[in-house]
Write a structure and sequence with these properties.
The protein is α+β, with helices and mostly antiparallel strands. It folds into 2 domains: 1-49; 62-163. It has one helix spanning 2-49; strands at 62-66, 75-81, 89-95, 98-102, 107-112, 125-133, 140-151, 154-163.
Length: 164
């Protein structure tokens, strides 16, 4: 009789565990979606409100200039610090006093204006950042390079490459 009860309880327990795992997986997906929506909301708020870059965590934005949209006039390419460690920052493109592009925050981020590696004066820029650290978390292991071009009134990501 006890074996029969155990035999009937095992599938119920397995189903219960599977449903709990499914529930927690769904909660994690929802949390990530909310986090992504918040990041997009923050980015859109900066673009809509045209906020000026500010000093954060004792570090101030760094500025470069170059023609990123191919109109013959230079835009400001700004690296805005967003954390105290690992050179965390965002790249903002400012055209005629208006923020027209804002990247995601990344570690050790930098930007290159046209004329360095972007060819043929069609506009664009290159963002480089640390994608992955070594086991100690101190030394960059993998670098990412994003090539952005200006097309049809928007900055479009053309290619991302990774180097170790």
């Amino acid at each position: 009789m006890r074996k029969l009860i155990r035999f009937k309880c095992v599938p119920v327990i397995v189903l219960l565990l599977l449903s709990l795992a499914s529930y927690f997986k769904e909660q994690e997906k929802n949390r990530l979606l909310i986090s992504a929506n918040q990041a997009l909301s923050d980015k859109n708020e900066t673009l809509a409100l045209n906020l000026a870059p500010t000093c954060n965590f004792g570090q101030c934005p760094t500025y470069k200039s170059g023609d990123t949209d191919g109109d013959g006039d230079s835009e400001s390419l700004v690296v805005v610090p967003v954390s105290m460690t690992k050179g965390g920052g965002e790249v903002w493109i400012i055209d005629e006093g208006k923020v027209v592009f804002k990247s995601d925050g990344q570690a050790n981020i930098s930007v290159k204006a046209p004329g360095y590696e972007v060819v043929n004066n069609e506009g664009g820029f290159i963002i480089t950042y640390t994608k992955e650290y070594d086991g100690t978390g101190l030394r960059p292991k993998t670098w990412a390079t994003e090539e952005w071009k200006y097309e049809k009134g928007n900055y479009m990501l053309k290619r991302t490459t990774f180097d170790e």
